Each structure stands twice: as structure tokens, then as C-alpha cells.
């Protein structure tokens, strides 16, 4: 008999659309399976939970080999906006909600959402800068403590 996963803690460190969604999808999937979930946003991943930025995340078209386009094309004006529109259309077809709505849904399902204290301090942010779903601003040590006994996933 295999052991059932009971807890997962997901670190989101990238602020691009394709950098944020994997963590949100994994946290949502965990909660749907009855698995305790924590989301820990650090460095540019904080953009996903900063109230004034979370609705403006873009697809990175430069230096992203998965785009399958030369970087020179990715730097052209409007390419990131075009790629972002296309990705959002595809996600909408699959009924994947926008970041703000997805975070609300995940949080309402019992997922804990945290911001990294060191990054918050480094970027001179305050609790008021974040969306209301952020439960707390915590240290890495506190994150490890609450993650004990579970898996840590870095997206």
C-alpha cells in the first residue's frame, strides 16, 4: 500500500503568466484532492499577489525557448502583448480563471497564501500592497516549518 501525499508547499518565484499558473494549478489540484496546500510567493512571483500588478501579468517572449521563436522576434514591440492575449484566450477556452479569480478560488478552498519576508523587505513592499488573500508575510524559516512533513515544489 502506497503512502498518500497529505501536504504540499509550492514556491512561485517567476512573475510571468507562464511562471505563475503552474503553481496555481498545482495548488488548486492539491485542494481538490484534499491535500493541504501552501503557496509561497518570492522574488518576481510576488507580482501575482501584488494588488496593482496581478491583473497585468504577461507572457515572456524573450529568452523563452518554449515560445519556439527566435529572441529577435520576441523583442519586437507588441509580441509579449500578442502572446499574452493568445495564452489568455486558450486558458479561457479551458475555463481556467484569471489570476485574481484563481487566487480567490484557491484561497476559499483552504490553500494558505504567503509572501516571502526577505523579498517584501528588499522590494520595499507592505502588507497593504497585496491582495486580501495573502494570509501573511513570512520568513523562509517559517515556510520550512509549516512545510514540514510535506513536499516542497519549486515552480
TrEMBL record:
Q: Which UniProt keywords apply?
A: Membrane, Transmembrane, Transmembrane helix
The protein's matches in SUPFAM superfamilies, at most eight in alphabetical order, are given as:
DsrEFH-like
Q: Is Signal included in the keywords of this UniProt record?
A: no
Fetch the Pfam families from UniProt: DrsE_2 (PF13686)
Asked whether the UniProt record includes Repressor among its keywords, one would answer no
Q: Which residues cross the membrane?
A: 66-84
InterPro entries in alphabetical order: DsrE2-like (IPR032836), DsrEFH-like (IPR027396)
Q: What is this protein called?
A: Peroxiredoxin family protein
Organism (species) = Melioribacter roseus (strain DSM 23840 / JCM 17771 / VKM B-2668 / P3M-2)
